[in-house]
């Protein structure tokens, strides 16, 4: 028994649990309605996201809303399926060679970090990370830029 006032030592499992509970993730940037606020993404979360090499772009797919227009609360599984099938995403990082080929992109970059973009349904590589999923696309797989993900109909 520990004398009063002396802190108890945590087991290895308790330490691991404490680390995972307090670690910030991409989930922290979503409000209760499912809206993404990029200002809420902590710098440590950005640092853990893979940096794209060459002409690649890292995108956070749009997750969708929590409730339908009729007020029905959507299940988490439905929201995950929407995220898999989405054609809209938020540009988190851009590779150092993206849009540098002047013969391919004579008018300059098609998008930049912090833009909402649309892309092909099966474009890019899907990678699971803490707090969600990201996609890594080639720079020429971006089809357009949006002002808001709400401008596009989702599943």
Short structural description:
The protein contains three helices and six strands; from the N terminus they run ααβαβββββ. With 155 residues, it is an alpha+beta fold.
Can you put this structure into words, describing what you see?
By secondary structure, this protein is α+β, with helices and mostly antiparallel strands. Helix content is 17%, strand content 22%. It is built from three helices and six strands. It has a six-stranded antiparallel β-sheet with strand order 4-5-1-2-3-6, with no helix packed on it. The longest helix is centred in the N-terminal third of the chain and has 11 residues, at 12-22. It is globular, with a radius of gyration of 19 Å. The model has no long low-confidence stretch (mean pLDDT 82).
Give the fraction of residues assigned to helices.
10-25%
- Gyration radius from CA atoms, angstroms: 19 Å
Q: Strand-and-helix sequence, N→C?
A: HHEHEEEEE
Please outline the major beta sheet: 6 strands, antiparallel
Q: Can you count the beta strands?
A: 6
Separation, N- and C-terminal Cα atoms: 58 Å
Topology readout:
Layout (H helix, E strand, L loop, with lengths): L11 H11 L20 H6 L7 E6 L14 H10 L2 E7 L21 E4 L5 E5 L2 E7 L3 E5 L9
Antiparallel strand pairs: 1-2, 1-5, 2-3, 3-6, 4-5
Name the features.
155 residues; alpha+beta; six-stranded antiparallel β-sheet; 3 helices; 6 strands; globular
């Amino acid at each position: 028994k520990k004398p009063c006032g002396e802190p108890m030592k945590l087991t290895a499992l308790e330490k691991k649990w404490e680390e995972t509970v307090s670690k910030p993730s991409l989930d922290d940037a979503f409000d209760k309605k499912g809206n993404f606020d990029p200002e809420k993404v902590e710098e440590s979360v950005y640092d853990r996201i893979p940096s794209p090499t060459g002409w690649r772009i890292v995108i956070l797919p749009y997750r969708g809303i929590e409730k339908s227009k009729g007020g029905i609360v959507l299940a988490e599984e439905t929201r995950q399926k929407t995220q898999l099938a989405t054609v809209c995403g938020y540009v988190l990082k851009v590779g150092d060679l993206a849009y540098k080929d002047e013969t391919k992109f004579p008018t300059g970059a098609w998008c930049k970090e912090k833009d909402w973009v649309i892309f092909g349904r099966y474009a890019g590589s899907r990678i699971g990370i803490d707090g969600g999923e990201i996609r890594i696309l080639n720079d020429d797989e971006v089809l357009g830029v949006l002002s808001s993900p709400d401008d596009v109909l989702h599943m």
